[in-house]
Design goal:
With 119 residues, this protein is mostly helical. The protein has one domain. It is built from eight helices and no strands. 29% of the residues are buried.
Length: 119
């Protein structure tokens, strides 16, 4: 079930459903084998549709990246630690997604006090 919710990350648009992604990811990470977690994370950061969605968000929807940043931060950490191996284009995209989401949060606090706790 957690997997299905995460696969629809690009379709989530409101802050509550985006914030829920991290909870789904945490559940998935705690209940699956490390090989399943790595396979899923690799699929997420290499999926053509998700890559296009992230690129569009970087270009003009930083709020989406801010509200789903827990997921991108975790994937970025996995890449930086060498736990998750992806090509440089994917690694750079995830890094830009994290930077964009964090910059947006720093500029406006997410436009709501609850974002501080979520970040």
């Amino acid at each position: 079930m957690a997997l299905c919710g995460l696969r629809r990350a690009g379709a989530a648009h409101d802050p509550d459903s985006l914030a829920d992604l991290m909870g789904k990811w945490q559940e998935y990470e705690m209940t699956r084998s490390n090989s399943d977690v790595l396979l899923f994370a690799r699929d997420m950061v290499q999926d053509v549709g998700m890559c296009a969605h992230i690129d569009r968000a970087i270009a003009g929807n930083a709020g989406w990246l801010r509200d789903s940043s827990g997921l991108w931060c975790r994937f970025h950490a996995m890449i930086v630690d060498g736990e998750l191996t992806v090509d440089s284009v994917c690694a750079e995209r995830v890094q830009r997604a994290v930077e964009c989401g964090m910059t947006d949060f720093e500029s406006n606090g997410g436009n709501a006090p609850q974002h501080g706790g979520a970040m």
